[in-house]
Amino acid sequence: MSAANGAPKGRVCLAYSGGLDTSCILAWLIEQGYEVIAYMANIGQEEDFEVAKAKALKIGAKSVHIEDVRKEFVDETIYAAVSANATYENIYLLGTSLARPIIARKQIEIAKREGCDYVSHGCTGKGNDQVRFEISYYALMPTIKCIVPWRIPEFFNRFQGRQDLLDYAAEKGIPVTQTKAKPWSTDENMYHISFEAGILEDPDTTPPADMWKLTVNPEDAPNTPERLVSSITFKDGRPVKVVNAGDGTTHTDSLELFLYLNAMGRKHGVGRLDIVENRFVGIKSRGCYETPAGTILIAAHRDLEGLVMDREVRKIRDTLSPRLAELIYNGFWFAPERELIMSLVDHSQKGVDGSVKIKLYKGSCTIEGRSSAVSLYDRDISSMDIAGGFNPQDSEGFIRTHAIRIKAWEAVKAKKGNQ
Amino acid sequence: MSAANGAPKGRVCLAYSGGLDTSCILAWLIEQGYEVIAYMANIGQEEDFEVAKAKALKIGAKSVHIEDVRKEFVDETIYAAVSANATYENIYLLGTSLARPIIARKQIEIAKREGCDYVSHGCTGKGNDQVRFEISYYALMPTIKCIVPWRIPEFFNRFQGRQDLLDYAAEKGIPVTQTKAKPWSTDENMYHISFEAGILEDPDTTPPADMWKLTVNPEDAPNTPERLVSSITFKDGRPVKVVNAGDGTTHTDSLELFLYLNAMGRKHGVGRLDIVENRFVGIKSRGCYETPAGTILIAAHRDLEGLVMDREVRKIRDTLSPRLAELIYNGFWFAPERELIMSLVDHSQKGVDGSVKIKLYKGSCTIEGRSSAVSLYDRDISSMDIAGGFNPQDSEGFIRTHAIRIKAWEAVKAKKGNQ
Amino acid sequence: MSAANGAPKGRVCLAYSGGLDTSCILAWLIEQGYEVIAYMANIGQEEDFEVAKAKALKIGAKSVHIEDVRKEFVDETIYAAVSANATYENIYLLGTSLARPIIARKQIEIAKREGCDYVSHGCTGKGNDQVRFEISYYALMPTIKCIVPWRIPEFFNRFQGRQDLLDYAAEKGIPVTQTKAKPWSTDENMYHISFEAGILEDPDTTPPADMWKLTVNPEDAPNTPERLVSSITFKDGRPVKVVNAGDGTTHTDSLELFLYLNAMGRKHGVGRLDIVENRFVGIKSRGCYETPAGTILIAAHRDLEGLVMDREVRKIRDTLSPRLAELIYNGFWFAPERELIMSLVDHSQKGVDGSVKIKLYKGSCTIEGRSSAVSLYDRDISSMDIAGGFNPQDSEGFIRTHAIRIKAWEAVKAKKGNQ
Amino acid sequence: MSAANGAPKGRVCLAYSGGLDTSCILAWLIEQGYEVIAYMANIGQEEDFEVAKAKALKIGAKSVHIEDVRKEFVDETIYAAVSANATYENIYLLGTSLARPIIARKQIEIAKREGCDYVSHGCTGKGNDQVRFEISYYALMPTIKCIVPWRIPEFFNRFQGRQDLLDYAAEKGIPVTQTKAKPWSTDENMYHISFEAGILEDPDTTPPADMWKLTVNPEDAPNTPERLVSSITFKDGRPVKVVNAGDGTTHTDSLELFLYLNAMGRKHGVGRLDIVENRFVGIKSRGCYETPAGTILIAAHRDLEGLVMDREVRKIRDTLSPRLAELIYNGFWFAPERELIMSLVDHSQKGVDGSVKIKLYKGSCTIEGRSSAVSLYDRDISSMDIAGGFNPQDSEGFIRTHAIRIKAWEAVKAKKGNQ
User: Which of 291-350 (C) contact B at CB < 8 A?
Assistant: First the structure.
């Protein structure tokens, strides 16, 4: 497990997952003559970090850094995305994209601390994650160099399939979990799990029931709905409290309330998604996702905005949310345009305060009411029964004035004989 | 039931619903000295049109016109909205807004045919529907005059509550259904039913289970999911076929397949919504809606676009869909900007052909697969296992080029000491 | 000149210009039984305020308030608009719209101080200014009531033309300037002068040379260009210094430098505009404008942004500038959406620092160079002669990756036989 | 001048300009063992095509194709851009970008006809033009391969400066024009000429007077303005007639009228531009441009739209014009998103018919009037002197209704204590 002869080529900080791919990459980098610092981010994925650490050390990592970044993940990227209702292509909640900048930032911190010349990761050359990692790296440390084995011909030509990796692992003495490979790939963190590739590459294939991991199958979910009465409270567009009268719990810590909502969403089968999306590199791709807490939070947040946000403010923010989602998806978290849009989103969220009642039931998340101390809703003026300060005759002038332009256009249209 | 003394003031075409409000308006218009032509549009609402007709004649309508506009409703406005994924404020499916232009157009046709000087409707002075009707009237017949009793002080001061209307009905011999008034208002058509006002004016009040009318309560829906296998087929973005292998039916007529999807959606509790929205006149309002087929169709249509629509085309169309939804909501169907945006939407829908598999279950509508003969999805290039003509090294240049701008910005940021 | 019999109806704060219209309105309001406080804003228009004050007192104003708001005009609205490059319909620099909120805010201050129940102005019922004033009034004092004589039938029916006003002035002893009325209307402030109505109502009529007031006719402008070398310096998107090596002057005070640029622009015939625009009330209108300093400032500011602003930041800001211009034009300065957009604009302007060289010559304003200490321009990487850290091969991957999507689309297009 | 030993490597269609760079590339490709077909597009640049042809043949081109594409250039891309008012970053008229797809399409036609395996061009690896050419190539012939010498290390390392090219030309017997090289690069076509690099790489350097080529220095332009009375007539947004009463000429052919406007613009010094722009590859670049006819046409076209285009239609189109300009700039003419946006632009241009009066004078282009048979301008309703069917009281309701939302917001703002 020693490095190649002579002086090392340099020091690499590798984003290590503990799986077959990055274990082989770790061994291969050492074989190529690099010193390797392994780095694992705890972003809430299901993983035995100590086992993985021992494995990396056994393969030859000079050191292994395990970093719990869950708190910054939820506070900095997840809740920012929720406050913007950011959904890529109007549907995808960005579970992987939101984790990448958090992982990359810590990796660069370690690379700097450990004096690394290089960073490396195990992402493929066709996907989004390579971009998300590397744009982040370059933003945070413009002089860093990236080693991306899956884009290096001598690597990808050598390892053309899973069997080649298994053979190499055997050769290098890398322990391999004996579970049979699943016919799809996954990426998991606290916010979501993604499934792609393998049998999912036919977009008409319905995912098998046993693929889904985080959430219960809606058909198997409890027959009794879960009602989170006065449940989710927001302050300036960020969740600050979850109350469930049913189980008598209250959660106020940002991470803790998130994990609680995750548990509720999982139990009731909330947050599954199956789509064909457009990768940044221009390739269409089919992905399945489970995002339990995120699905609930965005539904609740969007609902509350109906009560407390000015119509025009909402409309303008809504023109930028898709752009924000797109740039997060594409990997531009550490970019001036992300800061710019977030400055507007943050301004829009001042006063997005209040509580939303939620019902979870067999896969769906339903809003059952909302309230706020700073509501823009005025019961009297809204009422159909009382005037509430509204003069109905004002509407006459409102409508007639709006009709001026339409009448002018119709008159010219008639003249042109287009009607 | 005769008109006032002397020559009539003119002839009015009244949009008549058969209910208490428009029955009183009918009587009141006659009392004011107008000749009234009553007009009822069959837009798929639950109604005994013959009973309503007899009632209008009894009150004194000179004639009553009942028009079935369901086919043009589904073909012209509903499917146009589906093809644009048009949702107001990202959530409301526009059920009332899409019906208004269809109703108004027919009303103007009748007004012209019957030589009317005026049109009239029973909408209040605070709502959206007055705008939708009148902008449509003015667009289609710029010289028409509108009589809107709920904006005329002598009318709205006389009729300050339901009891005043009941008293007037008794006085005028207008038959009143003896059912107790519900503590909310509704507006129903083939696409949806809306609920507002009354107890719903407190936005934190959960709607009672017996309010919902079109859809089964999800908790009471069948325990067995409904799978519409290869179910909804689109051609140029419009639904052309629904197949349900479960019940062995196939539907291809535009109206018939819509009604079938409605039946399926109702059975499985799909399409309920409870929101606070922003009316065009600047008032916030709480509304509840049931839109079964619409909910299914937009989910299926949006999913199919992932497979067959170019990313940039989708992105550009998505910047205009909210504007389209807004202008439909505000009443500008017969307006140049609606025609303009639809020209782009129609262009974008060329080639939105294919089929989507749907599962309906206890309130939710889930996509289980999609296929198309003109898919832009390329399994080989998408695959993580084979190259499929893709050179992974190209990604290197792609990323490095995208990083140039980010590095330049970070360098200046560092110079400014902002980091 | 006395008020009507009995107790006054209330106290009105009237925006008074000193001209025939508002003088008659002042007299008429008194005749109607109101106490009138006259208010004149000094926004840099050409006016003898003392003469106007004496006139108002003579007519019967209870008091006259003259307020110099030029500094807040330039600092709060003019430079905000410049920092956003705000131009309505891509062409109009908003000279009137930017003055209105400043005037209205001071008027409400006075109205509050003087215990007024009403505010009043002399704007017509067809224009934009009534909206701009009144939306500002209602925002700043929701309970205020507006008296708008030109929308009151007893007023506008009585005064149907200029002669009726002259007769009334004679009757009331209102002094009238003996100059012959010009065949157009004007509105002047420090930022611009507008011309409309009269002979300009034919949009094909070329404005006569003697109409233009602020700027020299380009044909009569100096034959020698004015070069403001290193002339206009911006800090965070706002002008902070103007240097003219030609006349040896330097100006750094925000108001003073503005007035200096105005003088330069006027001398060289810069800033004339002749357009047909769309009023908020839906009417098309022909207007001519002179905006000397504004034209120079926006040209310089936009140029500097090319050097110091990130491409994507600029692109996003540019999607909101038209909306900002529109809402300012429509009168929504004191509105949440204006604050929202300005929050993004202000963020975008951090680091818009640097200097721009300007040449003024016979009506045109030409950029001759620009520099900044925080430039994002990198001479080496831009150079066609040296590599500057750029690897030309990266472009290969960049292009080939961008082509993936295009190739997929062309393949399907060919399949569809659309080509 | 012979090819390498053995069979040729394949056949290349080279975009040949006749200059030093592409002459060396031609020789080098032959040296590398390729057969080369030289192709020159006549896009209106100043060039002796016969001399260039002889030169290419002398160097060893198998054949030389000279193609006059001026008509399709003006009809297909220039007038499309004018009809959209397409300007990149709100300022640049896209002169090079609009020529590239026209050149590339003809090149692919020739490549197919001549059985070429490759296409080649002389663009650098840092610029926009490589992208514009290659995206067009790949769109029109997905299987084509590109040889781009300035991105091939053995080429760009061998030719590191102009002297290396001159030495190679001498070695290969390539005739070189004896004029001294200018300290900047140019690209010229009928629409514009661009200047960049060399001394222009300092963005603060004012371009020397003798750099500008197409247009007269404004200071040297005629002292008498040129008035094109009723001059430019558009039909559906495209210019169809130019009349100059001054010289008695009328032009109606699309190419001819364009060349005439070019001559007028050149004479009066119209259309110069000096900017720092953002290249697609993420590099900032300083460029100077002369676009005489384009500057006049867009000014006239935009003005006419004020008269004949509905406000909302204009506003929506204006949200897409910047995106259209961007994608043209980036090289995506042959892309689905360009077709999509043009479908909307074309719809918006129906009825953009009418004439605009223009004055050209010492560098500026001024609008002096406009008229149309399908104007949406209504003199009566616009008039400040007559009612024209407008009821001023309608404005009251219009304003009061718009104020509802603002008052609600101010009330909550006060509650939050933010005011």
Answer: 308, 310-312, 350
